Amino acid sequence: MIPPAEQCTLHFQFERDTFAFANELVWEYRLKPGTETMATLRNDPPPSYAHRCFVMVRSARQFLYHAHFEPSAPVAGAQIYRQIIREVVSRSPRQPSLETERIVIPGYECLRSFSKAQEQLLKAECGGAWQSYSLRSHWRMVFFISRRHQERTAGHLTRAFTARPAPIVHLFRFPRVTINHGFVLYGLTETPSALHFTAYDPNIPGHPAELTYNRADRTFYLPPNHYWAGGHVDVIEIYRNWLF
Prior knowledge:
Number of domains: 2
Helix content: 25-40%
Mean pLDDT: 90
Largest sheet: 6 strands, antiparallel, barrel
Strand order of the largest sheet: 5-6-7-8-9-10
Low-confidence stretches: 1-8
Number of helices: 8
Order of helices and strands: HHEEHEHEHHHHEEEEEE
């Protein structure tokens, strides 16, 4: 385990620790007037970088956990960055590296600027779409998710910011899969009635997202956006331990 003193230095910042590019959508979503449902239309031309939401949230945390950006160093060549990216994403998404063992990334100040300049390399090396569907949480989602389970999940997440900086969650609806998506959580505001989590949504690189847990009905809610009509979602924390 990483000593607590090492863990507390890890603070996810949206402007620094997110990708500048988006996980693209296969479908265009349009809210049906007077309803809370989405109509879908296949995007044409089809996206070149889709089904990578879980790859992107995992990779964002791996860069937070294992990389050290050195902006004063000269920008390197593509082959050097390719090897660096491969090394970062080969490390554990569950356990941070010691500061002395971090991988140095020269020429950039953060993942945001690195991903603006080296977008194609990162897209090529962080992982394929199949990795988004090989997660263990996909078998868990087919089983009943009770309100007690979601209450426990909310409790785990409130404690995760110290034990597991930048917790990653799987958001879904099942059996009608209207959403199947990953977020990085990095902020929390508690009120008597709710928990308000600030999140990185890889589908929306321009601004933070929010996920809310309502204490009264023990349910998570995601507000509407360009791909989701809004409403309740079930939540599983992933990359938490060897099982998930």
